Amino acid sequence: MITVEPGRRPGRRPGSPPSGRRLEAPGTLPDVTDLSALLADLEAEGDDLDRLLLALDAAGWATATPAVGWSLHDTVVHLHRSDEAGLAALRGEDLAPHALAVLTPRFDGDGAALLASWRSGRTALIDALRRLPAGTRVPWFGPAMGAASFASARLMESWAHGQDVADALHVRRTPTDRLRHVAELGYRTRGWSYVVAGREAPEVPVRLELLAPSGDAWAWGPADAADRVQGHALDFCLLVTQRRHRNDLVSLHAQGPAAHEWLSLAQAFAGAPTTGRAPGLPPA
Fold first, then answer.
1. Is 193 found in the same domain as 124?
2. What average pLDDT does the segment 66-78 reach?
3. Residue 16 and residue 73 in one domain
4. Domain endpoint, select from 121, 141, 169
5. In terms of residue numbers, what domain contains 165?
6. pLDDT at site 5
7. Last residue of a domain, one of 123, 152, 169
8. Is the pLDDT of residue 16 over 70?
9. Per-residue pLDDT averaged across 109-116, rounded?
10. Model pTM?
11. What is the mean pLDDT of the chain?
């Protein structure tokens, strides 16, 4: 599903924890169940990607991304159709007609028209989520989700496809602490990674300790777990969204067989298992 262009192997980032060193446990993690704050982050993620696309001409929109067969135009159409499917789900409509549109995105219009439609659609989705009664479950192509989980999934997809856009345009984005939502999903979908790969997840806890872009420490899982993963939040998010090969994510360190196995098949998104990116892409 994925191809790559040649790139150089990154060196260690400043502040990267050396292998075997444990990060300090965080004090108070951000409240990811705060729907208002989460939706503000989702809106900001979309706006950041929007700014990358503003100056594209017709040739720019046709630029290929690292996802085989997908141009920048295709990528934004996919995000737009996914937002439309989300709105349909919130209205209680049948999602079946949207399944093909999400997977084989088509849009009759140029880049400017697409950008305007995507802006309108993502604004409508966020507004609808803000009005959602507390406790509402959002039906989706898989199991229904709470509003916060649904919004986190939309943010993860916007960020991951935004990385495709950045890679296609050869630009580097400044990571933000909005990655907290992506990392949270990455940790929570450890079991899903095994399910989609057709394997049984081991009943072994894994501790995840990440260094946030702001310098804060984030952690999930039992503090006394023998198996653990450490590194930069950006690298972990690139891994679980399969936007970089593990060999290129030099800040990530796994301790214990369960931790190593998890990183070898981590997948935070729905769909069939993929091979991810080949090694060699430059740092994100």
1. no
2. 93
3. no
4. 169
5. 35-169
6. 27
7. 169
8. no
9. 96
10. 0.86
11. 87
Residue type, 76: V
DSSP code string of the chain? -B-----PPP-PPTTPPPTTPPPPPPS----TT-HHHHHHHHHHHHHHHHHHHTT--HHHHTPBPSBTT-BHHHHHHHHHHHHHHHHHHHTT--SHHHHHHHHS---SS-HHHHHHHHHHHHHHHHHHHHTSPTT-EE--SSS-EEHHHHHHHHHHHHHHHHHHHHHHHT--PPP-TTHHHHHHHHHHTHHHHHHHTT-PPPS--EEEEEE-TTS-EEEES-TT-SEEEEEEHHHHHHHHTTSS-GGG-TT-EEESHHHHHHHHH---SSSS----PPTTPPP-
Highest mean pLDDT among 23-32, 119-128, 264-273: 119-128
pLDDT band at 33 (very low <50, low <70, confident <90, very high): low
211 phi and psi angles, rounded to 5 deg: -95, 115
CATH classification at residue 39 = 1.20.120.450
Same domain as 135, residue 198: no
C-alpha torsion 179→67→120→123, nearest 10:
-20
Percent of the chain, pLDDT > 70?
Answer: 88
Residue 29 confidence class, pLDDT cut points 50, 70, 90: very low
Amino acid at 178: R
Gap between the Cα atoms of 153 and 144, Å rounded:
12
**Residue 251, domain CATH:** 3.30.1050
